[in-house]
Amino acid sequence: MKILLINPPIFNVIDPSLPAVLLEEEDPMPPLGLMYLASYLEKNSSHDVKILDCQIEKLSLEQMVQRVEEQKPDAVGITTMTFTLIDVINAINAIKKNNDDIKIILGGPHVHIYPEETAKLPGVDFVVIGEGELPLKGLLENFNDKDKLKNIKGLFFLENEQIVRTGLQDLIQNLDDLPFPARHLLPYKKYGSAIGKRFPVTTMFTSRGCPYKCLFCDRPHLGKSFRARSAKNVVDEMQVCTEIGIKEIFIYDDTFGADRQRVLDICSDLIKRKLDLTWDIRTRVNTVDKEVLKALKEAGCQRIHFGVEAGTQRILNVLRKGITIEMAKKAFKLTREVGIQTLGYFMIGSPTETKEDIEKTIKLAKTLKPEFAHFTITTPYPATDLYRMGLESGVLPNDYWQEFAKNPTKDFKPLIWEENLKKDELVSLLKKAYRTFYYRPLYILKRIISVSSWGEFKAKAKVGLSLLKI
User: Fold this and answer.
1) Which fold has domain 192-379+416-468?
2) pLDDT over threshold 70, residue 448
């Protein structure tokens, strides 16, 4: 069987938390989920697997359909997120219009939250929930036998207009058993980043699941139990990346530093192997100390993304971050001292937050002195405790995300938390946050001095020009 895994063209992003100009300037990153599915099928089946990343190749819907026609797949799998659902539906319609015999399989965070609503959408043949490797393999092996499919966990599909639910597949406990993502199926040398220093760039997971319980966040398809790959397995993949010419890796773990000893073991192995590689991580301010940071620096880690979110302890407590302002200040200071860059994530418009609180968040962002700051408007996304709180309290009038999942329309506008401040005020404060952080003369001078190549200069200039439009 031939299966084509598609990262569809994106033209209708649903996300009120950023000015549109910043969304337009974001660099596409390699689709890790699809690469994992492809490598698993390559290793454990005889299916012919291909990946098409329409975003990095800048394909229109018409060009995507042409590429599908050239591949002649029996099935197409499409990664689906709530805020790209309109584009996924457009891709389905375009593929089915050209060849209705192709079976459409959807997976990803959105379908895990709304499997029945997704299975009922026109053109959708199968929905895969949870971690997709095992269910997708079972689906492809029993494609035309729905009786056998009923015994494969992780699937939703229609039979005689009725929804068939097969239950949820257990989470994969030993992630070392998974083959490395199939980067060879993508034009992997095309990927770069505006905040990176080297080219080409790839992405990587060294763990799945997050043990923390922040109010605004949820990764339901990956679970809440932290499952980590061994240090050797992680560094083996990094070495493979260097062997194919990759120079920089963005590690997309929710909390890379959750297991302190594993971090030290990864760094030790990297130092021993002397790989020509730089990389960055996402972690929490309460997971780093001087020993860990020194090890990360020596091992080639050049940037740490820290989720700070708020500039007052009261709002941090509301968001259930489990950190303090002092922890944030200490983490950024120590990271700066060892010579690792930082990126800080900040949110405005959280429950009970006032304009004065937001001003303190903007002030803290500058006080921490990160090389980059990322500000968003707090948005209640589906399946989060924040969304449930909004529905229960009446701040959110109805279950509008479920309505959107049932009947996706282009004019849909998700709500934000307008308890104390209205959307126009929050957007104005968001723009102020970006302007006051990035337009400081000393900050601009430091960024210019830090540029080490023409490619990096062009990437930074692109982002700089986008910020001027705010």
Assistant:
1) pyruvate-formate lyase- activating enzyme (3.80.30)
2) no
